[in-house]
Structure formats: C-alpha cells, structure tokens
Batch of 4 targets.
Target 1
Amino acid sequence: MTERNRATIRDVALLSGLSICTVSRALRGLPNVSEDAQRRVEDAASKLGYRASSAAARLAGGRTGSVAIIVPRATTWFFAEAVEAAEEVFADSGLDSVLISLRGRADVRERIFGDLDALAQRVDGVLLLGVDLGDDEVEALAASPLEVASMGLSGVPWDTVGIDDVRAAHAATSHLVGLGHGDFAILAVGEDDRGTVGTSGDRLAGFTQALAEHHLEVHPDRIIKEPSSIEGGYRAMTELIDNRGLPEAVFAACDEAAFGALKALREHGLSAPKDVSLIAIDDHPMSTVLGLTTVAQPVADQAAFAADLLTERLQGRAGEPQVHRLPVTLIERKTTRRPRRQP
C-alpha cells in the first residue's frame, strides 16, 4: 500500500465495525477492551496492513515529547469529550499533552498564535479542536516548526477530521419531510463570537437543499439567526411563537439550541412533538434524557482520529495532508412525529 493510500485507524474502525476510540485502545493493548473487540481489530488491521504507532518510537525531530491541545473553551460538553479522547490517544503513545483554552480572550489568542516559536519550545505538535482560525493564523501555523492536525476545520494545509455538516442537516431535514411535514423553520443559524468553527452556514445549506429536493421551501421569516446555544434557541423559538407563527416542524442547528427551544415551548404551554416536531444535530448527553430526536456526530472519534494522525506525523509519517469525514447517525426519539393532518 502506498503512502497516499496507507490504511488509517478509521479504515480499521470501519472494517471492524467498532469506534475509533475502541480501535485505538485495542491496537495499543490497553485494558477495558473485550476479547471479541480485540480479535475484530486485530483481524481488520491484519487485512489492511495497518500498524499502530509504537509508544516507544522516537519522535521524528521531536524535542519535548509534548503536544498542545487548543480549544475555544474547555468547559462545554463537546470540547470536554473531545479533549478527553485526544488526551487518551496521546497518553497511550507516550506523549504528554498541554491543554490551552482560548476562552474567547483576544490576549490569550495573540499570545499563542502571535509567538508560535515560543510555543514550539514547549511542544512538538498542536491539535486544534474546533478553533476558528484567520488566514494569517493558518499561514503562521503552516510556516512554524510544529506538526499540526485539527478537528472541525476545512481548507487547511494539514490533516483534519470532521463531519459533513451539509449532509448532517440534510439527514435531519429529510427525516422531517419523510414524516409528512410541509411547514418548516430553522433555528439558531447565527454565528456567535466564541472563536468556534462556524457550522451554521453549512447546516442551513443542508436544510434548504433537502427541502428543495422535495419542491419545498422555507419562508425567510422562518430562518431565525440567533447564536447556536441554549439561550439562542430559547430566543429563536420564543420569536417564532410570539411573532412569526409556529410551524409543523423545526430544525435546530444544534442540540443545545433545541434545549432552549424546548424550554420556550414549555413556557408557552406547548410541547414537542404534540405541537411541533423538533430535531437537531449533535447527540448531547442530555438529548437522551429529554428524548430529543437528533443526528449524532461522533465527537470522541473525531478527536481520537485527529490525535492519532498527529501522533503519526510526529513519528515520521510523510505524505500529503488529508481531509477525513466521519459518518453521522440519525437517532429518532420522542420529539418528532407525523403531523396530525395525516391519517
């Protein structure tokens, strides 16, 4: 297998039918992996000719044996889950990790990206988890001595892992259409200023594409551009109910926005799916508790895969950087149903 076509940990995961996190643990001989999973991983790796990076391997040109994990904020469930998965991969490979939270502060951001030579004295590589970068920051990282990988970014000159947000939104909207709904709104498709990679534009595009394929469209008044957050979802749903009219079905750009929407419905004596079908994207841990229908993205697997790619770069893997897109899964729970007008 050529370097360009070299098997990755994702290939092993797909062939074995297991998550990337489980595959990573099995390949490194760690505990808490069942005998069946271990066998499936070993069989898949053998068929693909995949070899996990050795924890004892010398870092190619490395000096510190450390990597930096940079996040917009470390306190949200999304980034906490991603950081934990990445840290486990690095630790399993004998690497120390340094967590850097930008916290929405310009001074922290300037200190990190404005002096990458100083950062390179502390770490050998950087893993960016959902950090929105300016063109000058991309150029500076590419020109630095640091190896770089990322999660959630696109159009960057290094290995990056993520999901197809257009496809995820298309799947969510198609589920609503398939139930028989014909009157739609989309909530929380305005970007906030938290330094996080923006997904709202792609999710709005997937939403409108799915409707167009069924000769449907959404009225501009039903596109509510609030931030993708609990507060944004609450304000957006309140605006719909009070001023723009409640549609049959609502797509919230993320689970947290859907949580805010559920709160607004409850305060108005309404609920989902009795009065409106509601769907979102993410699969936040609270989605199970609240019965939210959602399109789940593999947060931990994305971070683990990106961390594994960075580890391999540090240990000498060459070849062109690649973009890896992981699949999403529709999880139907209790907030969507067929409209009442149908028999």
Note: The mean pLDDT is 89.
Target 2
Amino acid sequence: MKKLLASTLFATGVFALAGSVQAADCGDVSIAEMNWASAGVAAYVDKIILESGYGCKVTMVTGDTMPTFASMNEKGEPDLAPELWVNSVRVPLDAAIAEGRLIQLAPLLSDGGVEGWWIPKFLADAHPDIKTVQDALKHPELFPAPEDPSKGAVHNCPSGWNCQISTANLYKALGAKDKGFELIDTGSAAGLDGSIANAFEKKTGWIGYYWAPTAILGKYEMVKLSFGVEHDKANWDACTAVADCPDPKVNSYPVSDVYSVVTKRFSENAGVAMDYVKVRKWDNQTVGKVLAWMDENQGTNEDAAKYFLETFPDMWTTWVAPDVAEKVKADL
C-alpha cells in the first residue's frame, strides 16, 4: 500500500504541487472530531499535519455522522469530516455533491469499514480447514459456550445495535442451533470485548460478530470468515437487517464506504493542503494497532495521533511533500 501511494503521488505530481506553503494558503479550518475512536484519532492526525505542515489554524468541532453531515450540507461547516461512513447518508450526500456543496475525497479507510463473524487466528492456524462460517459450524466442540461447554456458542452484537438483528438472522439462516450452537447475548460492547479477551487468555475457541477498525482487533489477532456468498443488498435490506424476518437467507455483511468529505469552501481555499486531504488513507490493521495503543495507555485522540505519526512515518510521509514532512516531524 505504501509503495502504491507513493507511486500514485509521484504519477499525479502531488509532490511537485505540495511544495513550500505559507499560512495564508490554508487559513482557518474546522474539522469534525467524531465521537468514535478511529475518527477522533484521524481528526487529530489531520489537525497536526495541517497546522505543522501547512500553517493552517485548526478548530475541532465535536460531531457524529448525521448532525455533522447536516451541518456541512446546510451551513458549510465544519470544513472537513475525515471519517464519514457514507452509506447512512448516501442519497443526500450524492445530492450535495451533484449540487456542488460538498466534495467526496479518497476513502480514509482503504479497506472500508468491515463487519463479519471472526475467530481467533490461533484457532484458524490450528484448523486450516476452517475458511467459512459453515466450516466453523461443523465443530461446536471448538467454540464452547460459557455456560454449557457441551454446546458451541455464537457471540452476538451488543443489545440495541443493528448488528444484533443481522447476527440473529444469520444464526437462524445458517441453522446454527441445529448444529449445536447457542446464540449468546453479550449485553454490551464491554461484554463482547470481554468475551474475546477471555478466549485469548484461556486459548479457547470463539466465534461471533465484530467489526474493524477497532482496538480489540488491534490487540487480538482475529480472522474474518467468509459466509460463502456475495453480499445481497436487496435481501439484506428486506430481511437480514429486519427484526424477526421469518425466512432469512445466508448473506454477507456489506463493506461500509468510509470517505473524507469537505465543503466547497475548503476545496477552494485550502490551497495545497487540499492535495494532502485528497490522498491520505490508512488500512484497518494500522488503525487497529493505534487504537490498541490508545486503549492500553488510556490515551486521548491527540495522544494516539502523535503515536501514529511517531510510529508509522513510512506511511504518512508518502501523503505529503518532503518539506511538509520535516515540519511535522520537527513539531512532534
């Protein structure tokens, strides 16, 4: 990925464009600091690079997907949403792009937002025949239920989340109960995380719902299993994601599109800083490592952003011109 980014930058001449820059070229910039970890860290990575590297004056604005999008669309502020999960605002975002109010840039998460059923890598390595969810369900003995080890367990998404519905429907579609598996309600995100941590501590099997990028997948190496079918959006919307669907079919989770979105004003006024925002992206594995460090060290979004910049210079220095990179390094 690093080589690809670097070659893309050279091919498009971004390095040539993004030379020395004066503060006046960038000016005041407002960035949405979304209320989940990966987006909050990304916002501070942008803040540090835009301020130190491009001389921008950055203001952070607390945000969430729907209210941030509405504010950008209707009021033209904040200027930048680094990590917008666009599937939930796809129709109005397309309209805003067509009408010239907002601009969708590169995908911040190069892998997209990923959901699925996962197993520990140590288990996948020990049982290379397990490639799909269906393969795993042939072996309830490998995934013992916490209350009744004679049965297997599929760990569900936290209560009240949409993924609780889809996981329950997939459990039903796969006939997991008849294969000797119980569907375990983990109750909360903390409960779900705790069940994974416990499995790794005891080196026991675990299968269930999780998503990336997250601190847990940065800390514990997991393998996402295939459902053996392509994502069927029509069936997903009509049944998989609908509570108590009477006849669910096996389906795959969608990959969520996660893009940076900026206002027209920013795109016109930010100068070469816009070139940086156009190209920077990171992968879920890297984000997971940063979030795991943040969790273990009880760090803030800003702490984690500095950790990323100090630990992964081979990645972020491909996003900017060499003189910009030196300015950022000097300020760390």
Note: The chain has a mean pLDDT of 91.
Target 3
Amino acid sequence: MTSLITRRIALAAAAGALAAPHVARAQTRYKPEYKLSVVGNRTIPLADGAFRWAELVTERSGGRINVKVYPGSQLVGGDQTRELVAMRQGVIDFAVFSTINISPQIREMNIFSLPFLLQDSRGFDAIIKGPIGAELFRTLEQRDVQPVAWGENGFREISNSRKAIRTPEDLRGMKIRFAAGAIFSEIFTALGANPVQMSFADLQPALSTGAVDGQENPVNLFLGFRMDTLAQRHLTIWNYVADAGIFLLTKPVLASFSAEDQALVRDCAQQAAQEQIAASRKGLGADGDRSSLDELARRNVTVTILSDAEKQAFARATRPVYDKYAQTVGADLVRRAEAAVSGARA
C-alpha cells in the first residue's frame, strides 16, 4: 500500500514537472514593457490621458501589464503623423492619437476638421457617442489596430503675436503653423494666411524666433505650454475644428492578453478618456467655470470670443474647402454628421 502511494506521488510530481514549462510560459507571455506613444507631454489633456491610461492599467493589473509612456512622439522622432505606421510595424504597442495626425492616412477622420461643422461640445459629443463614432472605429480596425475609447484634446483656437483676429481679413498675410493635413493648409490659404506645416516639437522655437506669427491649438494646451511667453499675445476663440482623441492598441497586443485583461485595458481607457474630456473642457465657461479664461487674462493675453455671426464670416470664406473635403470624407458620412450636429443643437 505504501509502495502504491509512493508511486502515485512520484507520478503526480512527474506530471507537475511536465506542466511547469507551460505554466511558466503562461506567466511570462506578457512583454516586460508595453510602449505607449503620444504627442506632447503632460499638462495637455491628450498627453495627460495617455499617462493616466498607463497608470491605471499598470496599477490595476498589479504590474502584470507594465505600460510606459513615451511622450513627444519620441518613438517616431517627434513626427506624430508616423505613429499609426509605427504601430502597424510593432514599434508602438499603445497610443493616444489626435485624429488630426492620422487624418492624412485615414480620410474619414477629417470629419472633425471640416471648418465650423461641430461648433461646440454638443456637436462633438453627437459624433463620438453615436453611430458615426462607431463607424470611424470600424474604419480604424481595418488598419490592424483596436480603438477602445474616444477622448478629446479640445476645440482648436487661434493665437498670434500681432493683433486680435475677428474677421477673415485680420488673418491676411499671417504665417500660421498647422500640424498635419492638407485641409488645414487649404483652410488658412482660403482665409488669406500663409500656412506652415510643422511638428509640435518644432513649434515652440518657431514661435520664439518669429518664424511663424501664430498657431492653432486648444486653450488648455496654450496654457500648459505657456505660449503667452512665446509672443502669443492674442487668442481668438472660434471653435473652427475639434481635436478628437483616440485610445488604441495594436490587435496582436490586445489578442495576447487574457479575456480579463482585455476588459481591464478597455475599462481603464474609458476612465482615462472621460477624465481627459473633462480636462479639455475645464475653465472655458461651461457650468460657470471660467478658470482657464481667467488665467489667460492674468497672463495679459487678449481673448476675442467670436459671436455666431462673426463665425459665419469665416465659415463662408472656407466653404469651398468644406465642400471639397466633404467629398473626400464621404458625402453620406458628412450628411449624417450634419444631421447629428443639428439635432444635438436643437
């Protein structure tokens, strides 16, 4: 009897030894580090959302999924327009994109850049929370990446070192930096400005030296990077386009996680995205919070807030650009977006 028990113990030990390599492989199949890329750095909502996502995933997984943020698009040499390609090549695992930076490669993302389409947060939310937002995610999924949450960097406003901008004529002759996308070049050309494409990494020195007169970015990015110290003394709030954010990771990386960890990554993205959206809208007048506008005043920045009638003058001047890119984005998609925005503002 003792011999039989001893034999069974020996057989169990042998089976355990055979299974051990499989257990070890299961425990170590995750990479020691997952790289998350984002343009800019903390203090701007887009980058802050990326750091928050990484922190949440790493913390809630107990370090099992160790996500490290590489800000300033440093994994692609500072060129944020190359991040999608780098993800498909396996250089980047996770990312938080601005739709502006991927719109040259995915034409439908130009929906957020059609001049004066969205107008305000109600219009923006109608797109990302409805059927169009889901459709845009499906388009991205065809590129070997998996979007998991919509975020927001804010509506893009325009600043410059020369004078207040209240009419299209005020822009005439100004050198205005834009990040990426031919649509932006055509918008500013239609307004009589001289558009200059430039990465965010090159923007600050260009403003300091006067190589460009102005730039267009969300207010909270303007504040975070202290553009008032870079000769940007005038800022016009016109909400001409929105800067949508997308939280995503590569499909192979997502597939490598257990079902529980896939859910964890998605849940953390949703939380980080909600916090990011709140940060992008902070202090701009909603619910009586004007803290960001008050801070601009404290920094002696002249803020010009356009009325709807004044915005219409810019919308009319850029309408040919709108109509041209509506065909590029897709006429039916734009028609449905216009209806969603109109319904949200009714």
Note: The chain is about 50% helix and 20% strand.
Target 4
Amino acid sequence: MIDLKLFRTDTTNSGMTEVMPRLAEVEADVQGLVEEHMETLLGVRFLASEYSTGPVHGGRIDSLGLDENGSPVIVEYKRGMDAGVINQGLFYLAWLMDHRAEFDHLVRDRLGVTAASQVLWSGPRLICIAGDFTRYDVHAVREHRRSIDLVRYRLFGSDLLGLETVASVSGGMQMARRARRQSVAQAAADVHGAEMTELAGAVDAVLLGLGDGVNRVERKTYRAYQRLRNFACLCPPQRSKLLVYLKVNPRDVDPVPGFTRDVSGLGHHGTGDLEVQLRTLRDVERAQELFRASYAAA
C-alpha cells in the first residue's frame, strides 16, 4: 500500500488530483474508526473498547470482538510502526485464554446466549493494525502458533481508509497441510464415495491456492476459508452436490439455474449471499472466477 497511488478525477480541469496517503494524528483516531465499522472492515462484531485485564495484569485491550466463525478476536492499534505491538497483543491473548468464562459472559451480555454458546476457543485471533511493520515483525508472527494478522493502514484525504494485510498466520485454525482433506472431504468419502471425495478435495485445493494468507476454520456445519474475513464457506456434501457460499454480490452475477443462487435473507450455514452448487469437477472450473472475485473482495 505504501507504493499505491490514489488519484481523484478533476472534472472541472479535465485532470487528475493525487490523494496523498497519511497516518492518523493519534492512535485513538484509527481505533475509533475501526471500532465504529469493525464488522464491515474486519468481519468482526465489536464487543468492547479499552477492556481492562484487571489489577494483576494491569493492562487494557484496545478492542475485543467476535469474528464470523465465532472466534474471539483481540485488535491492537499503533499509529505508526511499533515493535511492541505483537508482543503486547500476544500478552493479552494469553490473558484471554485464561479468562474464557469472562469473555463468554461479555459475549452473552452484548450478543446473546446463542452467540456465547458458539464461541470457537480453538481459534482465538490477534489482529494488529499499524502504520507499518518490519520484516522482523513478519518473521516473528510466522514463528508463533497463534492466529495473527498484521494489517497496515493508510488514510487518504478526509474520507478514505485503506487496509492491507501484510502477514497472516493461521495458528490453530488451519489444519496441517497433510490433513487438508480429512474433514469435509472425509465426510464425503464416508457417505458418497470417491467422486465426492475428489470434488471436495478439488474445491479445497482451489480455495487454498488463491493466494497467501488463506486460513481455514473448521465448524461443525461448514468449513470457512478466510482472508482476514471469510470469503468462502464449504458445507458438507449433500447426496449429489457440494454447496459453497461466497462473499460476492448476487446482483452482480447472472443466475444460472442449478449452479448459482441468490440466498440473501435465506437461512444457511456459513456466510455469504451467493450459493454455488457443485456436482462435477467441471463445475469447480466454472466457479473459479467467482472464487477469485470473492477472494479479492475479502
């Protein structure tokens, strides 16, 4: 993003005006902006700001939230570049894992009993948002077993915010590479045989191969593919098909009966308003453009 140039068209002078990037005046400006629009920006439901960790730990967590898959999320902010942001976040993440009941109580108060009963403690996340990170920061997060996202921000003019994922490590959310096909794909093998196994494996390989930083989150009713936010959710196979839900606006896609469907407002497992029905490997090839569009949108 540092090398990204943004221009605004000037219709009066038939020219272009560059919008210069800048950092926030103070850290609180970034925090306030993200917290106000956290679900839109990060796919995280906001729970609390400046949350006290008590007299023993003596700290305050910048933001607490719950992501689309029910994973607890800590968000830490720095106005510029700060080598301590990752260690600070990990310190709070360790505190959170020791205070699960307190977090569950917070979720129940803010989001209700159902949300509290579905908290996914196997995949807590740390999101660090800062003006920049060093190559040492990027290396450091890859050495940890926690789920960490490093996100660089820039403000453009008075009304534009840019976010760029610098590094993303999946920690406990993503299964080991050698076990990639053991969950959804194994269910397919048990129920529907080799054809469904091959189909589920092909979808998994395509979604993971869309780019760096793709994490997988296993829930009982779906598998989410995540790039800071969910961009695809794969459900266990039905009798003769797989259903994938994408973060693509259904109004931007010409509906194809038996292949794509607008499920806006309809209840279903996972997240996304565009349902893609896959029955053969050819369907997976047909869907790749939609997969890429959803990945880009995330």
Note: The chain has a mean pLDDT of 89.
